């Protein structure tokens, strides 16, 4: 208890008394002592003056008895304890003393000269010296001062005692109770409360301690309940839980783990967990376990686990970091079915469901592997990009089921041509790719292309006939990586498509220029649509008899800011391949109809017509509604709109296209068959479709006056036959590409209704056409004839 609170409080109070009260008390004694000493000195001074005068005569007379008597009288004074009288001659030296022999204190001495006043004046005869005891601090105290000091000391002691008693009652006692409660909590784990109630700090401290004890007791109860619940959860949760110690030995397993694996608890506790993992998975287990020892979930690995009944499970193990004492908590999940499902999904993800070949994703993976194999074996790799010709015709005319059956039959025939190590894939739709690894990959690729061509010699189910355009690229001769190899084989395939299809073409660098040109044209098309570079030029169609204007044909032109007018045929070809022809056609149609509405305001132009060319891709179900909205906006009769279609539209015989054409006819638009005579079975279309106008292709018109008489005769016969047949079927006939007066005269003699060509008018910008019509009206030339 040497460092108890009470001893420290006692030390603090004593220290306060020593620091503040003791100095005041000592100062009081010192002042009292000085006062008493001053009084004694003043008294002695008076005595010395009186005795020095009294001793002057006896000392002059050397009267020792008188000197002794006066000295005795002086020493009898209360404060003086010794008197010494001595003359200067040394004949007389008298000393009187009342000092007891046992006195060991110090004496204070005060001397005064003895002066005798005689006839001759004052003479110093000797000295008188008196001695008195040296005063202490308490020697100068008076009775009343002693009483005051006693009262002061009593008051200080009373306050000191009261402080000690109050400290014990109000501080030490509750602290002792608090200490005993804390000791009981520490030693016994109990939650004792302090039995103390007051409104001071000790009361609040005791109340806070009691509240803390209550809260800790509640938390302990909750922890015990949580521990019991965690234990139940560990054992009853339908998950395979287990714990490992720092040596990777099994320290605990849940009941569900035992049920799922078939082991008994005594069989696995203390056993290395790796011993339950199949040997082929142990390396992976060990590698993953120690690869990231500091992560929050340091182990997440799928291994093969051996059950007690020799069953093998694919299990996913997730292990946390150490919890305490080097133990870790792990959960083991049976993912056998999931693993099998993943394998199936992987196969499905890289396999085409229709043909069983690799799909694009699987092909790209196989392509990378084959390139690596090519590098290791130092040989070449050929990539054949195969695209079927006219496959869309099978889907549109025979149905998608027939198309799927044709693809399956094609793959069945193709697999008979493949050798071990060859890889075939369906990239999508009617596109296929084949990888061939060989010393001379080019020769092997052309041999394979010949075999593929033989495949198509036999018709497919339903008497469907197909062919294929094949592009070939060789690694590393023509490509440095997988993406470049596939791209260049694709470029070679498109080059073969443009050259006439049905065959193989190996890549060469000139194809890159074509590809770049095509890419540039695609950019120009997109820029033209975004920046509004497309214009609808109009070319008048005239009556061959009087050269009056019967109508106009809208022609697409792309006016590039730097390059000027770009060739429209190439633009249409690329736009149809990319699908942008629909947006271009809609843009040209809107501008042409808007211009036609302005032209109709000219005198005599009320009955002219506007012919608009439509690509097969434009025949969407929304087309009639779009045309109707435009005509209604510009107040134009549907009868004045001619929809020009090519034989390609009719050849496909698409039900949706037929429906759109019939809808346009019901709305009131007329149908013109463009480039008549260049297709496969043109005459049948006049009977099968609601055609109103036949436009004879310019190749026949140019040949009617050919220098070769046989060519000219045949061409005239064909033109006359087409004209006669068309008239009998109530169709108007228009000759395209009329460029000379001789051609016009010949056509007029054959009964051609209208002509169109550079002889009459070139395709004109709307502004220039407006100016031309204005000039015609000013010249009072009647330019109008109604188209029948």
UniProtKB/TrEMBL annotation:
Keywords: Membrane, Transmembrane, Transmembrane helix. GO terms for cellular component: membrane. PROSITE patterns: EAL (PS50883), GGDEF (PS50887), HAMP (PS50885), PAS (PS50112). The chain crosses the membrane at residues 9-31, 146-170. Residues 169-221 form the HAMP domain. Residues 518-777 form the EAL domain. Pfam families: EAL (PF00563), GGDEF (PF00990). GO terms for biological process: signal transduction. Residues 226-287 form the PAS domain. SUPFAM superfamilies: EAL domain-like, HAMP domain-like, Nucleotide cyclase, PYP-like sensor domain (PAS domain). Residues 379-509 form the GGDEF domain. PANTHER family: BIOFILM ARCHITECTURE MAINTENANCE PROTEIN MBAA, DIGUANYLATE CYCLASE DGCP. This is Putative GGDEF/EAL transmembrane sensory box protein. The lineage of its organism: Bacteria, Pseudomonadati, Pseudomonadota, Alphaproteobacteria, Hyphomicrobiales.
């Amino acid at each position: 208890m040497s460092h108890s609170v009470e001893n420290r409080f006692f030390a603090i109070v004593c220290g306060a008394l020593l620091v503040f009260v003791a100095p005041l008390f000592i100062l009081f004694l010192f002042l009292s002592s000085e006062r008493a000493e001053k009084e004694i000195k003043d008294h002695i001074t008076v005595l010395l003056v009186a005795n020095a005068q009294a001793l002057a005569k006896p000392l002059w007379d050397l009267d020792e008895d008188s000197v002794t008597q006066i000295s005795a009288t002086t020493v009898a004074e209360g404060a003086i304890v010794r008197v010494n009288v001595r003359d200067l001659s040394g004949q007389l030296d008298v000393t009187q003393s009342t000092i007891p022999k046992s006195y060991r204190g110090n004496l204070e001495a005060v001397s005064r000269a003895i002066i005798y006043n005689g006839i001759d004046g004052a003479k110093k005869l000797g000295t008188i010296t008196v001695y008195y005891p040296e005063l202490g601090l308490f020697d100068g105290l008076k009775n009343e001062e002693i009483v005051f000091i006693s009262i002061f000391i009593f008051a200080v002691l009373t306050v000191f005692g009261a402080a000690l008693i109050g400290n014990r009652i109000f501080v030490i006692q509750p602290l002792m109770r608090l200490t005993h409660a804390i000791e009981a909590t520490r030693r016994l784990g109990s939650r004792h409360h302090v039995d103390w109630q007051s409104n001071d700090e000790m009361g609040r401290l005791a109340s806070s301690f009691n509240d803390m004890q209550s809260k800790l007791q509640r938390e302990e109860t909750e922890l015990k309940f949580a521990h019991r619940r965690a234990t139940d959860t560990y054992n009853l949760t339908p998950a395979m839980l287990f714990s490992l110690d720092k040596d990777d030995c099994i320290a605990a397993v849940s009941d569900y783990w035992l049920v799922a694996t078939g082991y008994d608890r005594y069989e696995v506790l203390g056993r290395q967990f790796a011993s339950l993992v199949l040997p082929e998975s142990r390396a992976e287990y060990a590698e993953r376990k120690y690869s990231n020892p500091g992560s929050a979930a340091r182990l997440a690995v799928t291994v093969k686990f051996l059950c007690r009944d020799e069953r093998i499970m694919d299990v996913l193990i997730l292990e946390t970091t150490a919890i305490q004492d080097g133990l870790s908590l792990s959960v083991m999940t049976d993912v056998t079915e999931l693993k099998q499902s993943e394998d199936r999904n992987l196969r499905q993800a890289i396999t085409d469901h229709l043909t069983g070949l690799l799909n694009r994703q699987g092909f790209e993976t196989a392509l990378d592997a084959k390139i690596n194999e090519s590098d290791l074996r130092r040989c070449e790799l050929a990539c054949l990009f195969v695209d079927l010709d006219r496959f869309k015709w099978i889907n549109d005319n025979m149905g998608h089921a027939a198309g799927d059956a044709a693809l399956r039959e094609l793959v069945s025939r193709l697999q008979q041509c493949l050798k071990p190590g060859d890889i075939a894939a369906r990239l999508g739709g009617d596109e296929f790719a084949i990888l061939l690894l060989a010393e001379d990959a080019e020769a092997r690729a052309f041999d394979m292309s010949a075999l593929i061509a033989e495949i198509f010699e036999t018709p497919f189910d339903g008497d469907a006939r197909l062919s294929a355009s094949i592009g070939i690229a060789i690694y590393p001769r023509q490509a440095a990586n997988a993406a470049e190899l596939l791209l260049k084989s694709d470029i070679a395939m498109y080059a073969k498509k443009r050259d006439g299809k049905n065959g193989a073409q190996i890549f060469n660098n000139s194809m890159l220029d074509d590809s770049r040109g095509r890419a540039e044209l695609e950019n120009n098309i997109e820029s033209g649509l975004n920046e509004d570079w497309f214009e609808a030029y109009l070319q008048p169609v005239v009556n061959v008899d009087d050269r009056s204007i019967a109508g106009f044909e809208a022609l697409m032109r792309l006016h590039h800011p730097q390059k000027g007018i770009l060739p429209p045929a190439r633009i249409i070809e690329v736009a149809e391949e990319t699908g942008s022809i629909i947006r271009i056609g809609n843009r040209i149609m809107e501008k042409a109809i808007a211009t036609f509405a302005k032209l109709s305001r000219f005198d005599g132009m009320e009955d002219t017509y506007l012919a608009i060319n439509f690509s097969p891709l434009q025949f969407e179900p929304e087309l009639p509604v779009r045309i109707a909205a435009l005509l209604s906006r510009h107040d134009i009769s549907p009868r004045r709109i001619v929809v020009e279609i090519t034989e390609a539209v009719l050849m496909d015989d698409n039900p949706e296209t037929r429906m759109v054409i019939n809808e346009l006819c019901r709305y009131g638009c007329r149908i013109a068959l463009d480039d008549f005579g260049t297709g496969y079975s043109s005459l049948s279309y006049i009977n099968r479709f609601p055609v109103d106008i036949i436009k004879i292709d310019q190749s026949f018109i140019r040949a009617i006056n050919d220098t070769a008489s046989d060519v000219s005769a045949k061409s005239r016969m064909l033109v006359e036959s087409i004209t006669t047949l068309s008239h009998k079927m109530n169709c108007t006939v228009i000759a395209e590409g009329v460029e000379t007066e001789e051609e016009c005269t010949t056509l007029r003699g054959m009964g051609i209704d209208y002509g169109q060509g550079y002889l009459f008018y070139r395709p004109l910008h709307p502004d220039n056409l407006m100016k031309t019509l204005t000039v015609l009206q000013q010249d009072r030339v009647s330019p109008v004839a109604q188209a029948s």
